[in-house]
Amino acid sequence: MEQRPEDLQKQKELTEKLNLAARAYYQEDREIMSNFEYDALYDELAALERRTGVVLAGSPTIQVGYEVLSELPKERHESPMLSLDKTKDPAALAVWLKDKEGLLSWKMDGLTIVLTYREGRLYKAVTRGNGEIGEVITNNARVFRNIPLAIAYPGELILRGEAVIRYSDFEKINARIEDVDAKYKNPRNLCSGTVRQLNNQITAERDVNFFAFALVTRKNPDGTDDMPFSTRLEQMNYVRSLGFETVTEKLVTAGNVEEEIRWFSSEIEHNDFPSDGLVLIYNDIAYGQSLGRTAKFPRDSIAFKWADEIRETVLREVEWSASRTGLINPIAIFDPVELEGTTVSRASLHNISIMEELELGIGDTVEVYKANMIIPQIARNLTRSGVKDIPEVCPVCGGRTEIRQENDVKSLYCTNGECIAKKIKLFTHFVSRDAMNIEGLSEATIEKLIAEGLIKEQADLFHMERFKEAIVEMEGFGEKSFANLTASIEKARKTTQARFLYSLGVPNIGLSNAKLICGQFGHDFEKVRHADAESLVEIPGVGEVIAKSFAAYFEDEQNNRIVDDLLKEITFEERKAPETDSQILAGKTFVITGSLEHYANRDALKEKIESLGGKVSGSVSAKTSWLINNDNMSNSSKNKKAKELSVPILTEEEFITMIGGMNDAD
Question: What is the pLDDT of residues 323-333, one digit of tens each?
């Protein structure tokens, strides 16, 4: 093997760059390079490794994935879930098949899930995670749109599939989010966050679908193997007979595989589910298993990725779009080109780091494509003149801008707190349905009100009668519209603390987090607004990033003045006081960990504990009265800590017995 120092140095650089991109994509649901660029760099690294015979520790060619990061309990898979080798050449699939039959199906772009059924009922659901260890999301799987909760098989059955959200549902969810910055980038990111929610009510509202693609295990009640199938097609037919939806598959040979690939390609524009290619697996199960596996890939299956349709064009402009958080997003404007049947002239550049990676300058000749045949992206820059003319002032207000670097990503921000773009987006968020729910105030109307100087802060909205004469003269308004608007404003004066907190537009705070935070502090808003980061990270589901941004918001004098002005205009809905004779858990502190079977989710169990006078903490300490965990033998940090401190561990059933059966669980 040829080994040159410069080759090994290049391998180190590529490994670091690819791992950084993968970590951002899989752990943080953000994108710092395009799929096209990632694949090209990956192929370059793999070629170098073949030539040198050296594979560095941490190389993505030998790693299956990264450790998952969440509050969900984790579990090791019985057998590793490997990645697939891939090709973009249809002819290569015919060569790969040789004289064998294969099953060709969609490679869906969502989150891979392993479902376990025991005694005919859904027992457990675990995400793929890093291929070896996944997250237990059983309660969330139970509210997927199309998963059977009971099946006609008495033993143990394990299957794998993909959780996905339809494009149509994705667009509906995004349409309800008025703040452009808060919209989800693609269905995969939305699905990933949805499937891993701690509150499965959110999962239920987002219509997750599950499509099975592999039967892993079928065992009799006595534990003996019960897999009578000789082909993958037989397995999938059986899975369908149990009530599962499966990925669309076609039986192929070397003679017709390219024709069937063309059929799948023609279906993409009609397909409501996101996909990023196809999967081909040998139909003969015994033959496929006899081939074994490499360090990373199984040899019985291979992925096909679409050869991207690429067009050359010229970059004419970088448009900078301001948001309510002050983030200014770069958008590439180029000469129109035809891609996948549509005319494209714009593509998001996401941040300055990606622009610098491409060395992107006005007038450069670039290649553009559609990621997964859907989203316009810049693949590469052929002339690389370099990044110039990053705006020193905000394109909306003219205020000073600054470049900030967070998590190795450079982004541009407007520093002017009075920026009209910030105000428009902030007001639009404030009146949105999940916030204060004030109907009749579109973004265009808010822009006019701000431009006319009629509203300067959110509290001004509660005194619209002062501006009646000016408003009724606006286009699209009249006496009736104004009356409807003021009625909606009056209705909004009474709201919940969580909706009010969410309406403020605190960075990184969604409605579900707002509910968690308000609940943690007993719905005492003064305690909520004065919470420090240390106390916030104790709340399950609230991480360090959220805690720091929350604390920083309420440390700002201007923000507190705005909140004080708003509190003069609204009242919070009264919460029913608990009956004193039912406070049987008063003075007791609980910690909840692991998956739940009787309560819908941790929030439901927490609400029950608090209704009986108890408190729920996010971590085990000497002050903890009980840890609730259905898996007493778990090696989780909370279990270990509880045993070290001699804190009793209760199952849900033991907790229900302890409170005298006072259970409102599922």
Answer: 767 788 899 99
End-to-end CA distance of the chain: 62
The catalytic site residues sit at: 107
Q: Out of 2.40.10.10, 2.40.50.100, 2.40.50.140, 3.40.50.670, select the CATH number for domain 311-414.
A: 2.40.50.140
pLDDT tens string 299-319: 999 999 877 778 899 999 998
Distance CA 64, CA 56 (A): 14
Predicted TM-score of the model (pTM) = 0.52
User: Distance between CA atoms of 520 and 517, rounded to whole angstroms?
Assistant: 5
282: β partners: 102
CA angle 438, 442, 444 (to 5 degrees): 150
β-bridge mates for residue 275, sequence order? 108
Give the DSSP letter of residue 630.
S
Sequence ranges of the domains in the chain: 5-52, 74-304, 311-414, 420-572, 580-658
Minimal CA–CA distance to 599: which of 547, 635, 646, 650?
650
Neighbours of 475 (CB within 10 A): 7
**Mean pLDDT (the chain, rounded):** 84
Identify the sign of the CA torsion 551, 555, 556, 559. positive
Whole-number Å distance between alpha carbons of 661 and 665: 10
Q: Beta strands 156-164 and 209-219: pairing type?
A: antiparallel
| Fold of the CATH domain 580-658 | Rossmann fold (3.40.50)
Cβ-based neighbours of 221, under 8 Å, separated by 6 or more: 119, 154, 155
CATH of 5-52, one of 1.10.287.610, 1.10.10.10, 2.60.120.10, 3.40.190.10: 1.10.287.610
Question: What is the model's pLDDT at position 553?
Answer: 92
Q: Which positions ≥6 away from 502 have C-beta within 8 Å?
A: 434, 435, 509, 510, 511, 514
Examine the pLDDT at 588 and tell me if it is beyond 70: yes
Query: Was domain 74-304 assigned CATH 3.30.470.30?
Result: yes
